[in-house]
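Design request, tokens follow.
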């Protein structure tokens, strides 16, 4: 504090020093005058005896000075004055940097929020996803990359593990809420005891669900998400303890989870208990997602070993029924592959974000090279000034410091403006970012993002400022005082530096353009894939669930769904309707199991695992899924429970050789189930997205015997209804759909209302996001590269005015002079293109996982992009080169 006090009171102290010196000189003058000297003689003598007043004043002031800081502040003042005298230059540089820094900050904020920032749970490093592999399960890898847990697995792990503090499983689902307002279907997270203990996030109001809620015959209370509590109860704390109707059963609200809490990345409305009856659980039923919290000091490899031990305990303790070998699953080679919960949440999106970050980083490098070119031109114009300063004693470091200070100041100004660009960019990214981008709601500009901006601003300032420093801050002996601007050798040397920067710009721009074009071709290839349905924009989809507590009888459920289908088909403008348990790309949890075909001996061989779907008559016609052979289901077959089925074209070829050969053949799910006759074969459907292979699929009737095992009889109670209409997506049609459903049963809520086009687009959202970002980066790179070429050629024309005048005086053709500059630009572009093609060939191999239907070394792309870039470079160089035609030789020579 004393030092700061001295620093801010310097002016008063400086004035006191000046007054003291003046008083001391005046006293000496008075003494000399008393000795008989005249006033003038006394003053000269006193000043001569006293010495250099200015030097003494400066040395006295040094006691209160921070010399380095004050020297830096003086330089900064000079920098600000120079920038103020060149506002066009300053604004151009600041805007260029603002775009580059802002874009990098925005993408870094996404990267930070998704990949770097810890999960919003206590001790998130202890959280793991219970991931299982089953490489021996035939066909499982064709539609799923993991084996999920069964209820019996969870009960085994929870009771006998040695490495977890807590363990639980959960399942996404839906529930119908009635009695609050109009019937509503909400997203539920069905959880076991241990899930909330694993997350360890306390309730905002009320209390957690407890082990008592897991009793199948107990109260089974529920909890609300913060958003649903605000939306439906207005944030009323008294909502805790109220009774609501969930799937036509009264449920007490136990508590409310805090704002932003999600089960992993699932945004739920309601938490409900998964009430398992341990007595009735089989080995199978691999549908549940597991999470656990490691004990302190335990690492994942130890937990893997513990789970591997428990798999044997699981097979020893449970069974799939009498006469079924519980060690059958040894052939599946089930093995644990636990992973940090954060890795499970992020998945493959990390690769996409790193690619986007790298491309935006390249744009930043291009921006820096552009600014470096501008600074070199600016320093070139100050060459005489720098030579004079060097001759007067300014050292190399002094000149370098001032040049670097100017560049860093521009970098900081660009960074400050870049924060605003980043904020706008984040709003754009969150708007166009895919909804399935993990942690999308957490993306923000935080302290780490602002620190990144500051570091990037300083580093970019040092980067583009270092080039002029190396060129224009030599030793004093190397700086010519006169003629510095006229020597041809020096001019060529300076031009060579700017040319190298242009080559670098062209090379980097080419890499980004090739990346963008490959993503455009990927997007186009995905659009050209037949997804297994037609005209998605005119296909309206909604989901309806009929809980057992509302309608118990399966046939009544079937008749309600049939009536809803008929009512929907009767809406004006609707040409057909149908329903299925899942529609393509909806993300609904698929059913799957073994498939046995009649006449094949499976002794010593495992039947393949295949996807299941349950459909109504008319669904395939409504969806536009082509019938390859045979026919569709009929309602008579549904209600008579006739054992029939349909298969996809790929499954027909796999099992029977062709679609036509499959008709009349019989298959079943497990031994003891009646054989089902194949009555139809439909085209393959891209269930998981157009970039994924079409899984071989079995289509069962929506009501059938043995639906949930031997001796069962039921209908699928949750179904997606599809309607074909040219009014799809309109509010009027949606209102009429709801009225049609409520005219059949007023307690049925309508959910997941969308067009198939929306679902289809969402499946390509990640590719679209990558495409947009690369396209923006490519466009920015192309613009900056072209500006760099334009600037170099324009400067070359201005510097060679005298030479052009002499050439024209000697009879040179104006077109030849213009072509001389265009040729120079094309040479630079050619060199940059050669470098860029080599770099692109290596980098595109790393992007192979993001491409679809196009080779990373696609010949068309690698040919077309350089041609376009060369054409743009020719145009950019022609515009300044054309000015040579307007140069008057006499005026050019007279000016020299």
């Amino acid at each position: 504090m004393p030092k700061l006090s001295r620093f801010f009171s310097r002016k008063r102290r400086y004035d006191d020093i000046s007054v003291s010196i003046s008083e001391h000189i005046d006293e000496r003058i008075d003494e000399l005058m008393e000795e008989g000297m005249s006033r003038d003689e006394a003053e000269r003598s006193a000043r001569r005896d006293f010495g250099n007043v200015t030097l003494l004043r400066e040395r006295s002031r040094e006691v209160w000075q921070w010399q380095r800081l004050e020297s830096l502040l003086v330089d900064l003042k000079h920098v600000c004055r120079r920038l103020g005298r060149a506002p066009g230059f300053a604004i151009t540089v600041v805007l260029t940097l603002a775009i580059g820094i802002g874009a990098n900050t925005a993408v870094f904020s996404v990267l930070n929020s998704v990949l770097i920032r810890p999960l919003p749970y206590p001790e998130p490093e202890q959280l793991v996803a219970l991931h299982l592999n089953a490489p021996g399960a035939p066909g499982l890898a064709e539609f799923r990359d993991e084996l999920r847990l069964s209820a019996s697995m969870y009960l085994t792990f929870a009771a006998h593990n040695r490495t977890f503090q807590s363990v639980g499983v959960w399942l996404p689902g839906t529930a119908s809420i009635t009695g609050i307002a109009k019937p509503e279907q909400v997203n539920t997270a069905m959880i076991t005891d241990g899930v909330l203990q694993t997350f360890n996030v306390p309730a905002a109001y009320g209390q957690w669900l407890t082990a008592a809620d897991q009793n199948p015959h107990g109260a089974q209370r529920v909890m609300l998400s913060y958003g649903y509590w605000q939306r439906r109860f207005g944030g009323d704390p008294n909502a805790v303890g109220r009774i609501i109707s969930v799937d036509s059963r009264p449920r007490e609200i136990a508590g409310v989870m805090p704002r932003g809490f999600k089960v992993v990345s699932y945004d739920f409305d309601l938490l409900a208990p998964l009430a398992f009856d341990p007595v009735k659980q089989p080995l199978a039923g691999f549908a549940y997602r597991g999470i656990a919290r490691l004990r302190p000091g335990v690492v994942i490899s130890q937990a893997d070993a513990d789970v591997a031990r428990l798999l044997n305990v699981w097979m020893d303790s449970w069974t799939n029924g009498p006469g079924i070998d519980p060690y059958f699953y040894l052939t599946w080679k089930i093995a644990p592959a636990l992973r940090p919960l954060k890795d499970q949440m992020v998945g493959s999106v990390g690769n996409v974000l790193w690619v986007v970050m790298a491309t935006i980083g390249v744009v930043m490098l291009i921006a820096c090279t552009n600014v470096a070119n501008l600074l070199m031109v600016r320093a070139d114009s100050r060459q005489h000034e720098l030579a004079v300063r060097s001759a007067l004693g300014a050292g190399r470091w002094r000149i370098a410091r001032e040049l670097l200070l100017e560049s860093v100041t521009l970098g900081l100004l660009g960074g400050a403006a870049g924060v605003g660009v980043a904020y706008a960019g984040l709003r754009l990214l969150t708007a166009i970012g895919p909804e399935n981008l993990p942690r999308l709601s957490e993306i923000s500009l935080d302290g780490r993002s602002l620190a990144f901006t500051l570091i990037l601003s300083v580093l970019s300032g040092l980067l583009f400022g270092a080039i002029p420093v190396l060129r224009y801050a030599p030793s004093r002996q190397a700086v010519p005082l006169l003629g510095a601007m006229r020597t041809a050798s020096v001019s060529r040397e300076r031009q060579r530096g700017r040319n190298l920067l242009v080559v670098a710009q062209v090379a980097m721009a080419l890499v980004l353009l090739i990346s963008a074009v490959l993503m455009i071709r990927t997007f186009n290839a995905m659009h050209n894939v037949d997804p297994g349905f037609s005209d998605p924009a005119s296909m309206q989809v909604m989901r309806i669930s009929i809980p057992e507590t509302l309608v118990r009888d399966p046939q009544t459920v079937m008749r309600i769904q049939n009536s809803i289908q008929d009512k929907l088909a009767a809406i004006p403008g609707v040409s057909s309707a149908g329903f299925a348990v899942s529609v393509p790309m909806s993300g609904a949890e698929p059913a799957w199991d073994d498939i046995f075909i009649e006449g094949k001996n499976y002794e010593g061989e495992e039947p393949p695992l295949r996807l299941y779907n349950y459909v109504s008559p008319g669904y395939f016609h409504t969806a536009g899924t082509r019938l390859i052979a045979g026919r569709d289901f009929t309602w008579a077959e549904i209600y008579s429970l006739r054992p029939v089925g349909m298969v996809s074209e790929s499954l027909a070829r796999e099992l029977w050789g062709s679609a036509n050969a499959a008709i009349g053949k019989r298959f079943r799910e497990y031994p003891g189930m009646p054989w089902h006759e194949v009555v139809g074969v439909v085209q393959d459907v891209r269930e998981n997205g157009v970039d994924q292979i079409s899984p071989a699929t079995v289509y069962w009737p929506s009501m059938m015997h043995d639906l949930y095992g031997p001796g069962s009889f039921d209908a699928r109670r949750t179904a997606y209804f599809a309607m074909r209409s040219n009014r799809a997506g309109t509010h009027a049609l949606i209102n009429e759909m709801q009225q049609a459903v409520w005219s059949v049963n007023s307690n049925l809520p309508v959910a997941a209302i969308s067009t198939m086009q929306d679902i289809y687009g969402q499946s390509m959202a990640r590719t679209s996001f990558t495409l947009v970002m690369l396209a923006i980066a490519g466009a920015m790179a192309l613009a900056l590269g072209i500006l760099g070429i334009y600037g170099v050629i324009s400067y070359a024309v201005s510097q060679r005015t005298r030479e052009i005048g002499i050439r024209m005086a000697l009879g040179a053709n104006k077109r030849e002079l213009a072509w001389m500059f265009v040729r120079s630009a094309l040479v630079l572009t050619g060199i940059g293109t050669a470098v860029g093609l080599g770099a692109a060939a290596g980098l595109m191999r790393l992007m192979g996982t993001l491409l679809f239907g196009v080779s990373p070394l696609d010949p068309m792309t690698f040919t077309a992009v350089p041609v376009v870039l060369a054409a743009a470079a020719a145009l950019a160089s022609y515009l300044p080169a054309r000015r040579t035609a307007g140069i008057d030789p006499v005026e050019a020579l007279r000016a020299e």
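Comment from the thread starter after seeing the answer: thanks! The two ends are 60 Å apart (CA to CA).
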